């Protein structure tokens, strides 16, 4: 009594299959790692569920993964007695790509990048890796606890279609048979498969079984043996582990090809009892900005895998941290809901955050080159930290690095402490300018007076910067102050101030007339005390957003309140002197448009600007 139906893969799946089959030739063996990891996940899930419902395991004593090779038939079969899948689950899990980040990522992927199999693990194409070596895959599964008649057979040749059939399946769990392609027969070798397992899957705690070699041709009964070590790596003694061991473990945990920048391995005993092994990767993951990305911390309770999580065990700004936390203080029955606000989890999280921050502090001090790499990859995320994590604000602020007018490089390398050390005796505040690009920040006319007076200014052009400085405004008692907002009176000496006031007096009428012309665009026209080269610039009121923030908000689709900037003009500039003699409407408009352009803004009517410029030139 079976019914067979044919379905089409979701477009993205076909795309993915195509990509893999055609460009992933350099590292074909990973198919086994993917299937074994799925099988082990399924076993972990069943172990976990059976804690509250022991009928699920149907009397089976041990949960394992078996790998069988049939040379004559040309097949490899991976069998697990894990949780299994219902037919609906098969359709949902195998045949679609649920993760929207993966979809977007696929669309942006080119062939060169696809060849980098490092990416495969990162975006979880797992199961489809079968088709790298197989031209037909048959998956038979039954969910633990379901009726035997409710099994499913899924078949596909990986060419856009798959078929589903309902059938009776004796054992719960999942069996996947790969019909190996003619030119991939090397994988039908027992030793080759054992080698792949020990390379990638040794730390998997579920036993992986293969037939003992001697049994193959003899009359003895078939006997299986365990081929993985199945040790929980993180439980080993720190003293007995070498850096290579950590690197290997990290790679098998994350599928990263590069060794991590640093690791923190701690065993805590006493009030709480847990082991944590945390890694700081050397490269940012492609989906660091994807809100729904998978967690990087695997939570175990006494070596039983509970869940992969980032939200509860790590704050958002440390979402790049990978690793394992294994504790004896959580019941195996915890759910995500219970984890929220759980005291044990809170304590572990706090301690982990402290350790990571301390490690980074150490790295910044002792290995500045390494820290520069770290900052390049993760600096933008760390900047979120000063706002997100109030309790560690000062520590995180000390880890921040910036480009400044003195470092003069796009690579952010100046710490706030360094900035403060270089401050002049009478400088009170930490100055910054924000812009959309480094070039725009560096070229900002607002910097002129600061250059003249040799005052260092932070050049902020990461997207997160605006938001950061709006929420983080003090470091070691020094205010962070935008040089494009409010007045800058305190920079000038008494004499300079007097001098400037005198110049400004003669401009009263000019300013009034200019203001009339620009009535709809600006709040006020003022004599500037920040310009020495440029004729004009825009300034926001002390408590207004400023042009850069408005543009960011608008690009995020937010409603931006209509605010008018202040136009400041440089009384010593020849164009402005000309205006003093006679206010010319055309020139006034040009000065305004130039100010908009130089802060990285866009003109409402560029053609009009060109006309005005031409008129001026003539
Ligand atoms: P991932 O493992 O990253 O979720 P995969 O493509 O490897 O992606 O697997 C997709 C999904 O299919 C899994 O999340 C799981 O729900 C299901 N699945 C795959 N293999 C098995 C298996 N052996 N037993 C039960 N479920 C499985
Ligand atoms: Mg998988």
TrEMBL record:
Query: What residue spans carry the region label A?
Result: 1-336
The molecular function GO annotations come to: ATP binding; ATP hydrolysis activity; ATP-dependent protein folding chaperone; unfolded protein binding
In terms of Pfam families, this protein maps to: HATPase_c_3, HSP90
Q: Which residues form the Histidine kinase/HSP90-like ATPase domain?
A: 27-184
User: Mainly resides where?
Assistant: cytoplasm
InterPro entries for this protein? HATPase_C_sf (IPR036890), HATPase_dom (IPR003594), Heat_shock_protein_90_CS (IPR019805), HSP90_C (IPR037196), Hsp90_fam (IPR001404), Hsp90_N (IPR020575), Ribosomal_Su5_D2-typ_SF (IPR020568)
HAMAP family, A to Z: HSP90
What is the name listed in the Swiss-Prot or TrEMBL entry for this protein?
Chaperone protein HtpG
> Species lineage, top-down?
Bacteria, Pseudomonadati, Pseudomonadota, Gammaproteobacteria, Candidatus Pseudothioglobaceae
Q: Which gene encodes it?
A: htpG
């Amino acid at each position: 009594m079976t019914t067979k139906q044919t379905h089409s893969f979701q477009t993205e799946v076909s795309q993915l299959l195509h990509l893999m089959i055609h460009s992933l030739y350099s590292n074909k063996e990973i198919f086994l790692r993917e299937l074994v990891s799925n099988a082990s996940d399924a076993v972990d899930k069943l172990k976990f569920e059976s804690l509250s419902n022991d009928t699920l395991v149907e009397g089976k004593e041990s949960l394992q993964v078996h790998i069988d090779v049939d040379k004559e038939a040309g097949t490899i079969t991976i069998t697990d007695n894990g949780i299994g899948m219902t037919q609906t689950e098969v359709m949902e899990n195998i045949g679609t790509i649920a993760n929207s980040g993966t979809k977007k990522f696929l669309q942006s992927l080119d062939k060169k990048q696809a060849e980098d199999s490092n990416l495969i693990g990162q975006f979880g194409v797992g199961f489809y890796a079968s088709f790298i070596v197989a031209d037909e895959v048959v998956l038979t599964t039954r969910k633990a606890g379901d009726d035997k008649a409710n099994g499913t057979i899924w078949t596909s040749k990986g060419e856009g279609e798959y078929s589903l059939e309902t059938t009776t399946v004796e054992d719960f769990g999942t069996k996947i048979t790969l019909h190996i392609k003619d030119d991939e027969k090397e994988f039908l070798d027992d030793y080759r498969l054992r080698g792949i397992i020990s390379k990638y899957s040794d730390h998997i705690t579920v036993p992986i079984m293969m037939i003992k070699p001697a049994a193959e041709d003899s009359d003895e009964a078939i006997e299986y043996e365990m081929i993985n070590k199945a040790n929980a790596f993180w439980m080993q003694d720190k003293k007995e582990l070498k850096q290579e061991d950590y690197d290997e473990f990290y790679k098998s945990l994350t599928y990263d090809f590069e060794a991590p920048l640093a690791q923190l391995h701690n065993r805590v005993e006493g009030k709480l009892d847990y082991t944590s092994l945390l890694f700081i990767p050397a490269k940012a993951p492609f989906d660091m900005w994807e809100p729904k990305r998978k967690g990087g911390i695997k939570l175990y309770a006494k070596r039983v895998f509970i869940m992969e999580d980032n939200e509860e065990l790590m704050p958002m700004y440390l979402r790049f941290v990978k690793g394992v936390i294994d504790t004896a203080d959580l019941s195996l029955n915890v759910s995500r809901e219970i984890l929220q606000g759980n005291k044990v989890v809170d304590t572990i999280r706090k301690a982990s955050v402290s350790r990571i921050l301390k490690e980074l502090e150490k790295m910044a001090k002792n290995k500045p080159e390494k820290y520069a790499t770290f900052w390049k990859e993760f600096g933008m995320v760390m900047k979120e930290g000063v706002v997100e994590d109030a309790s560690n604000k000062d520590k995180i602020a000390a880890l921040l690095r910036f480009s400044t007018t003195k470092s003069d490089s796009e690579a952010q390398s100046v710490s706030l402490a360094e900035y403060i050390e270089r401050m002049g005796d009478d400088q009170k505040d930490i100055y910054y300018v924000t812009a959309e690009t480094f070039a725009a920040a560096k070229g900002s006319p607002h910097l002129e007076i600061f250059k003249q007076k040799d005052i260092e200014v932070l050049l902020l052009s990461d997207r997160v910067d605006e938001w950061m400085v709006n929420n983080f405004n003090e470091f070691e008692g020094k205010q962070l102050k935008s040089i494009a907002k409010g007045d800058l009176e305190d920079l000038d000496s008494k004499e300079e101030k007097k001098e400037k006031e005198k110049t400004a007096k003669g401009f009263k009428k000019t300013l009034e007339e200019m203001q009339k012309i620009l009535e709809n665009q600006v709040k006020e026209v003022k004599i500037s005390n920040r310009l020495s080269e440029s004729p004009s610039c825009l300034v926001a009121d002390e408590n207004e957003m400023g042009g850069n923030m408005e543009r960011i908000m608008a690009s995020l689709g937010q409603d931006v309140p209509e605010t008018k900037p202040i136009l400041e003009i440089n009384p010593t500039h020849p164009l402005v002197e000309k205006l003093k003699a006679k206010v010319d409407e055309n020139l006034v408009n040009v000065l305004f448009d130039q100010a908009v352009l130089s802060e990285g803004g866009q003109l409402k009517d560029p053609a009009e600007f060109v006309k005005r410029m031409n008129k001026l030139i003539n």
